[in-house]
Amino acid sequence: MLSRPRLQSFAAAAAMVVMLALPAAHAQERIKLKAIGQPLATGLIQKNKEQPFFENFAARTGLPIDVDYKPIDTLGIKDTEQLRVMKAGLFDIVSLRVSQNSRDEPTILGLDLVGAAPDYATGRKVAKAYFDTADARLQSQFGVKLLGVWPFGPQILFCKKPVAKLADIKGMKVRVYDQNLAKFIEMVGGTPVPVSFADTHQSLSLGVVDCAITGPSSANSAGWPEVTTHQMAIGFQMALNGYGMTMKSWNALAPDQQAKLKKSFDALSDDVWKYSEELFQDALNCNAGKDPCTTGKKFNLVNVPVTSADIDLVRSAVTKVSLPVWAEVCDKSNAACSKTWQATVAPVLGLK
């Protein structure tokens, strides 16, 4: 039997062992997650907003989480494969490219039908109205929880041949990134050509396409004005993207941690909405060689005036092309797809 002094000594030693072990235990409690980011080539939103958020994840969220963040164009994964690799459990968080992944899950394209969100204010309303629908579908089909939605901004037209109005693309080959946009280009008389963002500069240079569609800031970052001559600032889509997390990783967090995480992604998304709008006008100026130009490189593209007739043409796309075409595809995999869109988004747009 141990004497009192020896018992006290033993207890003290045991307490010391516990204290020494605490830092190691705390260190082991840190959560490590893997994240897919936007392509480096897309430019300033990825560089100045998204990457800093993930590289300082613990500080930005107040959670003991470290994130291994990699832009998708450094991973050897196509941007059309994001939902598949998330479902397979290869990554925990994704900066989801909505249009590019709509073939795997057509429901999510309801966030960004051609003609539905020609400006930022409308884009925000659509995103808010459709968020829960997209979230529920991603959870049920891919085990991914939607944490936020944000825009690259209005996707506009760049051409290496003179254009004065939208109808001038008749007979031209136009780079597109989803089927919805492809059908609209066909309606106007152009030939849609699916080309990845990373390959578009070369495709324009080699004449594989005559025109291409993206946001002005992304175009500036990727050097599209080097191989084009005209820009037409008419918004076909808002290029909405999202942040998603596997339900496995989400459910591993305590409720208070989930609340903190969602609040942090809400703040990031809101920040990107504001930043995107600032970039849009500045990039248009830069591309045309005008001031103020603070975020990009100056080029000398011709600014093509946007006519009211062309604005009406794009807006009419919702009822004439994008909604019917999307509904046909989406309803095959999700019976309530277009009906849900009509109940949530259509009222926001004043459609009956």
UniProtKB/TrEMBL annotation:
Question: Where does the source fall among the domains of life?
Answer: Bacteria
Name-wise, this protein is TRAP transporter substrate-binding protein
Organism this protein belongs to:
Variovorax ginsengisoli
**Name of one Pfam family that matches:** DctP
Which positions carry the signal peptide feature in this UniProt record?
Answer: 1-27
User: Record's NCBIfam families?
Assistant: TRAP_S1
Report the family membership: Belongs to the bacterial solute-binding protein 7 family.
- Has keyword Signal? yes
